[in-house]
Amino acid sequence: MIQISFAFRRRVGRLLAALVLCGALAAGIAAPSAFAQTAAPAAEAAADFKTKLPQWQNALERAANRIAGGDLANTEYETLRADLAKIQHEVREAGAAAAAARDTAQRMLDALGPPPAQGAPPEEAGIAAERKRLTQTIGEAEGRTKQTELIVTRADILLRTAADQRMTQLTEQIVRRGPVPLLPATWAALPEQTAYVQERIARAFGIVMGDDEWRGRLYGLGALAAILFLVAWPVRRVLLRRYGHRDLEDRPSYRQRVVAMAVEALARCLVPLVPTLVLSGALVGLLRDAADAGPLTALVVGVSGGLTAYFLVTGVARATLAPDHPSWQLANLDPDSARRLVRRVPLVMIGLALAGTGIALSEGMFTPPELRSITGFGTMALIAVSLLFLYPDHLWLAAPPPEAEATDDCGCPETTPGTGLDVTLPPPAATPAAAEAEDMPPARPRVVGLRLRLLIGAVALASLVAAGSGYLVGAIYASKLMLTTLIIGGVLLVARGVLRELLCVLLERGSGQVAEVRDIVIATDRGRRMLGQAGRTVIDGLLLTVAAFFLLPLTGMTLSEMKGLADGFLSGVTVGGVRIAPGDIMSALMVLGVVVAVTRFIQRQLDERILGRVNMDDGVRNSIRMGVGYLGTTMAVLMSVGTLGLDLSSLAMIASALSVGIGFGLQNVVSNFISGLIMLVERPVKVGDWVVVNGLEGTVRRISVRATEIQTFQRASVIIPNSEFISKSVVNWTLKDKTTRIEIKVRITYDTDARQVYAMLLKIGYGHAQVLRNPEPVVMFRDFLPSGPEFELRCFVANTEHIIPVRNELRMRILEQFREQGIQMPFDQQTVHMPKVEAMLEVLLAERRAQAGGVPELQVVADSGKVVPLADTLSDRGPRTAT
C-alpha cells in the first residue's frame, strides 16, 4: 500500500485552492463583460421607450379631443384611424421588445441561482450587484410592458368611439328630414339655387376649356380613348365570331354555353369599359389639381359610373339570355321573354344611369338643400319608373327544361364515373298518366323571380315616398344599396358559374400538361371529388369577399375599417386563455393539405419510378410506401400544429392527465395501431397474400393503421382489425413464396384395380402443364374406408392464383378417365336397424294374416332389388339398407 505524506497532501490542497480562486476571478471578470454586452441593447430600448412615450400620449390626447369635438368628416376619420393604427403598431413592437428584455433578464437571474438565505454567508460583491441590476431591469421592463398595454387599450377605445360616433352621424343623416320637394316653399327657392349651380358648372368648364394646356390634355385623352377603342373593337369581333353564340345543328352542351357566355360577356363588357375607365380615371386625376373643378369632377365620376353600370348589365344580360340564339341560353327563360327582356334592359339602364349621374352631381357639387331635394325626388321617380319596365310577368316566363340534360351540384354536366363523358338521359317511358296529360290543355308557363321583383319594387316605391317626404338621404342610401347589390350580385353569379366550370374542366381533363400536373398531385377519383368540393368552397368564399368589398362601403364602412375588421377576424378571439384565430386555422389547413399532397406525390413517384423498377416484393413496396405516408402525415400534423401556435407543453400536460382514460377507452384502437406498425415492419402478412384468419379466406388488399382489408373469393371486402393478425393464428399461403400444393381425394370400389388407379392419377398429374415437376406429383393410398379405398393426388403449382383453375381441370380429367375405364366411385352407405319398428310390423303382419286367412298383404323391396313378403325379411332378421 502506498503511503502519502501529510506535506504532499497539503501542497495538493493549496494547488487546487489556487485553481478554484483563479477560475472564480476569471468568471468574475468575464461575467460583467457578458452582462454589459447583454445590457447595452436593453438600455437603448428603455431610453427609446422613454423618448417615444410622451409622443404617443400627446397623440392620443389630440385624437381624444378631436373625437370629443364631433362631426368627423370622412377624410378626418381616415386620418385619425391611420394615426391610431400606427401608434398601436409602434407600441406593440415596443411592448414585444420590453417582454423580450424581461425574459432575457429573468433567464440570466435564474442562472445566478437563488439569493443566499438568511444567516448564510454573503455572495460575491459582483454577483450581488449583478443580481440587483437584473432585478431592476426586470421591474423596468415589466413597467414598460404594462404601459404599452395601457396605450394599446386606450387607442382601441378611441378607435371604437370614433367608429360609433361616425355610425351615429350616418344614422342621423339618414333619418334627418330635409326640405319637402312637393311644397311650394321649396320650389320658390329653386330659380336662385339653379342659377348658382349653373354658375359653378360654367366656371369649372371655363377654367378647363379656356386654358390651352388643359385643352391639349383633353385632346390627348380623347385620342387615347379612340386608339383603345379601335384596338379593342377588332378583338371584340374576333371573340364573338369564334367563341360566342353561333348557329349549331345540335343543342350545345352546358360547358359550351358557359364558355360562350363568358366570351360574350367579356367582349360586350370589358371592351367598351376599358376606354371608358381609362378616360374617366385620367380626367379625375387631372382635375384633382385644378381649382374650382369640383362640379366637373363630379360630372365625370357620375357619367363614368353610369356608363360602367350600363355596359356591365347590358353585356351580361345579352350574354346570359342569348336572344338571337335561344339554344345557347343559360337563364332557362322562354325565348320570346328573353328577347323582350333584352330589349328593355338598355332602356332601364339608361334611366338608372341618368339617375345615378344626378345623385353623383348633387352630392359632389354641394347642391343647395331645396334644389337637391327636388332633383333627388326626380331621380327617385326615374329609378322607380325605370324598374317598372322590368316588372311585367311576360318578361319572366320560364322555359320547359330540356329532357336530355342533367347537371350535377357543381354546375357541370353529369358524367359517367371515370370517363368524363356527358350522360344523355333517355326520355321517360310512356305511361297512362303521361298519355292523359298529353290530352289536357297546356299548363300555364311558370313565372320566375316574382318575389325578387316584388322586393325591388317595394324598395323603389319606399325610396320614392321617402324622397317625397323629405328623407332624401335615406332614400338615396336605400336605392344605392339595392341597385349596387343587384348589379354586383348578377355579375358575381355569372363569374361563379364560369369559375366553377373552369374548375370542372381542370378536374375532368383527360390529357395535356394540366392533367399531368393534376394526376401528380391527386390521382384518385375520391381525391378529385374532395378537391372539387374544396375548390367550389374557395370560389364562393372569394366571391363573397369581393361582394363585401363593394357593398360594405355603401353602409358607411371605410377601407380602413374593413381592413381592421378583416385583421380582427383573422387574428381571432381569446376564450379562456386560448386564442382562436381563423387566419391561423386556414393557414394550418393549407399547410396540412400541401404537406399531405406532397407526401402522396412522393409516395406515387417512389412507387412508380424507383420501387417499380426494382425487383422487389409487393409487400416490401407496400411497407415502404405506407411508412413514407405515416411519416409525411406525422410531419403534416406537427407542422399544422406549429402553424396554429399551440403550446405543445400544455397539450402534453392534458394528454398525461387524460392518459388513463384514453388508455381504457382507446386501448383497442391503440392495440390495432401498434399491430399495424408491427405488420409493416415484420411483414407476417403483406398486400397480395392469400391468408386464412378466423375462418375467413381471401387476398390482402390493403393494410392501414387500424385494420386490414381482405377480399374474399366471393369478391366481398372484409375489414379485420390488425390485432387479430398478431394475437391469433393466421394461415398465410404465400408468406415465403407462392408455390402451393393441390390435394384431390378420390375414392373407388374394392373390386377396382388399385395399381391401375394409382398409375392413372399419376399420369393425370404429370399431364397438366401448370403442375410443377419439382416437387413432382405424388399419389398417396390414404386409407381403407367402409365404402372403398381412398387415394389422394398431390400436385404443386407455382402461383396461388392457379389453384382453383388447376384443381378444377384435374378433377375434370379424373372424372373423364374413370368413365372411360369403367371405374366406379362409391357413395357412402349406412345401415339402420330399428328393432321397435320391426316388432310393431310383426304384430301388424300377424293381425293382417289373421284377417286375411293367413295371406300376407305387405310386401317390401329386399336388398337384392326383388319384391318379397315382409314376413320373409322379418324372419331372416337381415339388415335393411336405407340410402
From TrEMBL:
The chain crosses the membrane at residues 218-239, 259-284, 296-321, 341-361, 373-391, 454-475, 481-499, 538-560, 580-602, 623-645. Residues 417-438 are annotated as: Disordered. Residues 146-204 form the DUF3772 domain. Residues 742-825 form the Mechanosensitive ion channel MscS C-terminal domain. Pfam families: DUF3772, MS_channel_2nd, MS_channel_3rd. PROSITE patterns: TAT (PS51318), UPF0003 (PS01246). It is found in: Cell membrane. Residues 1-36 form the signal peptide. Keywords: Cell membrane, Membrane, Signal, Transmembrane, Transmembrane helix. Its main location: membrane. Belongs to the MscS (TC 1.A.23) family. This is Small-conductance mechanosensitive channel. The lineage of its organism: Bacteria, Pseudomonadati, Pseudomonadota, Alphaproteobacteria, Rhodospirillales.
